Amino acid sequence: MLTAASREGDLEDAKRIFATMPGKNLVTWNAMYTAYAQNGDIPLAKDLFEKIPERNLVSWNIMIFVYGEVGNVEKARLYFDDTPERNIISWNLMIAAYAHKGYPQEAHGIFHDMVLHGFRIDEMTFSSVLVACSHIGLVREARNYFVTLILDFELTPLVEHYCCLVDALGRAGKLQAAEDLIDSMPFSPSDVALASLVSASRIYNDPIREARAAMALLDVDSNDSSAYLSLSRVFASDGS
């Protein structure tokens, strides 16, 4: 009941259930402060975390996640460093926190520490480091990670890995390379990848490519308003 109430966003009901529970265990403690975190009440989540009689790895990982989600990577790192025994989720959460905040070097450092500690890198790890690279157009680094994923760790790239590399190429102005990568993806064209190409083509003033990508995007998602706006802008600018 506690978990159900928190999932439905009914924090008051979750608090009432938690307060009246006769025998609280670690699962209920974790569920309650997760509910606080999901509702944006980080101070109360932290306060409850400090009161947990006996924390487990899930408890620590939730706090890394909570602070990473709100962009407070300093706090996330403190909890990460204090975690008594980390698992692959702990490492991935910390890399993701740095990635989404736009700290590629820090994400890169955690990635290498993870390898040195003997953890098996997985697809989620690579998704996070590729996001870190794509945010600021680190093309060489993104390509290196992409190749490492395949050759060193023998993983099969997922569609999100391709999308991150397309985004990095687009942000760096390498539009032809981005379009070629989309065309060579072993999946149906991704709306995320095509939207990245539309945006990059607009930024780098390539209206023909922008229109081509926008039309391809509409083939994937006929309700995408950004594609219609791009086509309207392109056709209006050239008098078509």
Question: How is this structure best described in words?
Answer:
The protein has helices spanning 2-7, 11-20, 26-38, 42-51, 57-69, 73-82, 88-101, 104-116, 123-135, 139-151, 159-171, 175-184, 191-203, 207-220, 225-237. With 240 residues, the protein is mainly alpha-helical. The longest helix has 14 residues, at 88-101. The protein starts with a helix and ends with a helix. The relative contact order is 0.06.
Chain-wise SSE layout:
Layout: H1 2-7, H2 11-20, H3 26-38, H4 42-51, H5 57-69, H6 73-82, H7 88-101, H8 104-116, H9 123-135, H10 139-151, H11 159-171, H12 175-184, H13 191-203, H14 207-220, H15 225-237
Helix pairs in contact: 2-3, 3-4, 3-5, 4-5, 5-6, 5-7, 6-7, 7-8, 7-9, 8-9, 9-10, 9-11, 10-11, 11-12, 11-13, 12-13, 13-14, 14-15
Looking at this protein, list some descriptive labels:
240 residues; mainly alpha; globular
